[in-house]
Write a structure and sequence with these properties.
Layout lengths: L1 H10 L3 H26 L2 H39 L1 H12 L6 H21 L7 E6 L4 E3 L29 E7 L11 E10 L5 E10 L1 H8 L6 E5 L5 E4 L21 E6 L2 E10 L4 E8 H4 L1 H47 L14 H40 L1 H19 L3 H18 L5 E3 H18 L4 E7 L7 E3 L3 H12 L5 E9 L3 E8 L6 H12 L17 H15 L4 E7 L3 E9 L7 H5 L1
Parallel strand pairs: 12-14
Antiparallel strand pairs: 1-2, 1-5, 3-4, 4-5, 6-7, 6-10, 8-9, 9-10, 11-13, 14-15, 15-17, 16-17
Helix pairs in contact: 2-8, 3-6, 10-11, 11-12, 12-13, 14-15
InterPro entries: Bact_2-comp_sensor_kinase, dCache_1, HAMP_dom, HATPase_C_sf, HATPase_dom, Sig_transdc_His_kin_internal
Pfam family, one: HAMP
Keywords: Cell membrane, Kinase, Membrane, Phosphoprotein, Transferase, Transmembrane, Transmembrane helix
Length: 613
Amino acid sequence: MWNKVRELLVSSSSFRFKVMFISIICLVIPATFTLFIYNYLTKDTIKEQAHSNANRELTIANEYVEKLLEDMMYISNFIQVDAEMNTILKRKIKSTADQTSQQKYEQFLDDSKIIKTLENITLVGGKSYVTILLENGISYTNYSNYELNPKDIYNENWFKELNKIKGYETVWISSQPTMFKSEKPINPYQISIARTLRDDSLNIYGYVIVTIMENKINQIFENMNGKEEMILLDSSNQIISHTNDDRIGEKFKYSDQLTEENSSNIFEISKKDYLIAEQKISFTGWKLVSLIPYKQATSKINTIFNKVVAFQVLFFTIFLILMTYLLRTITKPIVRLGNVADLVQQGDLNIRSRIKSKDEIGRLSSSFDQMLNTINKMIQDITATQERKRKAELDMLQAQINPHFLFNVLNSIRMKVMVKGDKDSANMISSLSKLLRMTISKDKEIITFQEEVQIVLDFINIMNMRQKEKVDVEITIHEEANLIMIPRFILQPIIENSIIHGLNQSAGKIIVNAEMTENEVMIMIEDNGGGMDEQTLFHLKRKFIHSNTLDNSPSKNNKGFSSIGISNVYERMYMTFGQEFKMDIKSELGKGTQVIMSIPKGGRRPNVQSNAS
């Protein structure tokens, strides 16, 4: 079978088919087994089983506890409703000190009957301490006065509640410190039930108190087979009985985890899940609670899951071996192609993969070999191009001798003009020389703002010599703004537009201002020329904002700025600073024009090379 599978994979021309086939065999089959087992033994089943186990153990314990408490209630009910005993007790409450010998004998017989009755009824359900207190101070007990003086019961805090109950109501007294001397060393707490004895007029003539030791309930908890922690709580969630005596009387912290009676829930304590369950003891108002770590509650079911996981690991191991074997068969060409790529990366461009197969790897190998052939050819072409480029650069260097010669001649003319006393002409030649040098120089595409301002000053100097009326310039530059780097000839086209179009080559004033803010550098060029109307300003803004598109709509007014120079400035600044660069033009007829440029403060800064150039 496996030989047929291998033949199918080798004969197939599609690499994709091979990968899909292997994926189906090695992944889908174990995944199907996993899903089947997981659906069979779900997490919900675990939780339901854990709740069921906890409730079952709690039900068993609840039955034992209820039986113990029912025995106490039976004793109190018997004393309260037994006709003979009530007759004797009522007669006893009416007895006087002056009695005949016959009456004393009858009272002795009555006392013997009550004591014998108390001894008989307490044999039903384990050891219980029964106390009958009458209003005239007479008391009957099934224990000696050495154990406890019955009159001490009057001093207990809970005793006052007996006078508040009605009819046959019962007062259940949760764990109290043991009052019986022989029990104190071994049983520190006791649990009691108390009732009133009433005559035909429903007046109280006595009290019945039945007491057991708390350890009887504790023994029930210890005899349970489960590992849960059993707790008996009163109606206010105070602990009545617990395997740890130190916790009796404390407030149970986790009672709010159960929102319904006779329910169970899973919650977290110290990053560990616990299962809590509750069952109510109806006739007492108390409730029985079990608390167990969730892992212990689900240990048996987890054992089943562990076995399932073991089988899964076994199956996946088998399928992994199968996947490895099959993938190794079809990935050998890929490994070969990877080794060839490593050699190419090391510089060997003469190596070829030469993998001959019909699938995608074979076509990739053929394309890879063709790519290497193309690269070798391109290297040869680039080498020849570089040689021609070096030759062109030598010719260019040689051609630069002519501009340098021109600068030297201009400087010589300027010196001779200055010697003859024509300072204006000398300054004009000097400014022209600087502008010409800056225009031709290729090493200063990016210059400082201070250098750009100097270009503007030289340009205005030349323009003032050409015009009959001079243009005044006012420059206010923040000291830090002088250091920002911008493309050269950014201000000059704007100044030229102001002189030619704004001032109409007449006298006027141009203000150049550069201010620093927290995030940007604001550059403002303002003139007091004729300005532009709204339509001309609209077409101008449209020109420089959409300078990368064809928009040759002519302006109806010859006044205003030249859109060619402004578009050039905007495009070069946008290419340098990106979308953070902003440019705006404001103008009104008769009020001049203002150009505002915003450059990000983190823009270009001069370096050592640019300063030295």
